[in-house]
Amino acid sequence: MPLDRDAAHYLFGVMRLKQGAEVLLFNGADGEWRATVAEAGKRGGTLEPQRRTRPQTMPPDLWLMFAPVKKARTDFIVEKAVEMGVRRLLPVATEFTNSERIRQDRLQSHAREAAEQCGATFVPEVADLAKLPDVLSAWPEDRRLMFCDEAQAGGDGPAARPFAEAGGPGPWAVLIGPEGGFSDRERARLHAMEAAHVASLGPRILRADTAAVAAITLWQLRFGD
Ligand code: SAM
């Protein structure tokens, strides 16, 4: 199996592996494999797969839709979402989103590194930044949406039991807003969506990165395997 330049640099330049060394491989479709280094070069090399060590596993069918925040906190959201088990990450631009652009390739690399770190054999796709109204207009009929609405925090909002009335398992997405929260217009649209389940994450307004971790935790507790 040929290696590209980046993989060769990591294995032979950074990790200093030599011919005959053993590595673990995964491609997101065929589980984890033990392989040996057949050729090691500065710009390339080859691996020889030996045997499958673990079957392919998939995280549950949960998407995380989130408005990008500051760089380090967006990286944190991607990393933790992969560790905690989501199948797809969708960055969305909302009315109050600060970052108009993201480095999708960077976030995808973070997702791969997080999967490697936690021993997952599946790397969730990080989609390119899309506008929230466009995503909602094409919303899949069978996927429920946990709309984490900071306006539900405190006051008369329900306690942090976002899935108490949520029915059975099935495809879900969690939506987390930006630092400035959702606009009234966005809130009205989301409240009117049949697929949306309006959720409180408790009495305090959480930072967006904390809210993402809390929402995924609560979803996993209710529906995860
Ligand atoms: N200014 C802070 C920051 O810098 O991250 C708070 C941002 S909070 C408005 C970001 C998002 O987290 C909200 O749009 C919402 O999706 C979610 N969130 C935070 N606290 C929440 C709560 N108690 N209930 C529901 N969602 C919450």
TrEMBL record:
**Coiled coil, from the record:** none
Q: Spell out the subcellular localization from the entry.
A: Cytoplasm
Q: What is its EC number?
A: 2.1.1.193
- Domain of life, per UniProt, equals Bacteria
Assigned keywords, A-Z: Cytoplasm, Methyltransferase, rRNA processing, S-adenosyl-L-methionine, Transferase
Please indicate if the UniProt record lists GTP-binding as a keyword. Answer: no
**Main enzyme class:** transferase
Q: What does this protein do?
A: Specifically methylates the N3 position of the uracil ring of uridine 1498 (m3U1498) in 16S rRNA. Acts on the fully assembled 30S ribosomal subunit.
Q: What is this protein called?
A: Ribosomal RNA small subunit methyltransferase E
In which organism is this protein found? Roseivivax marinus
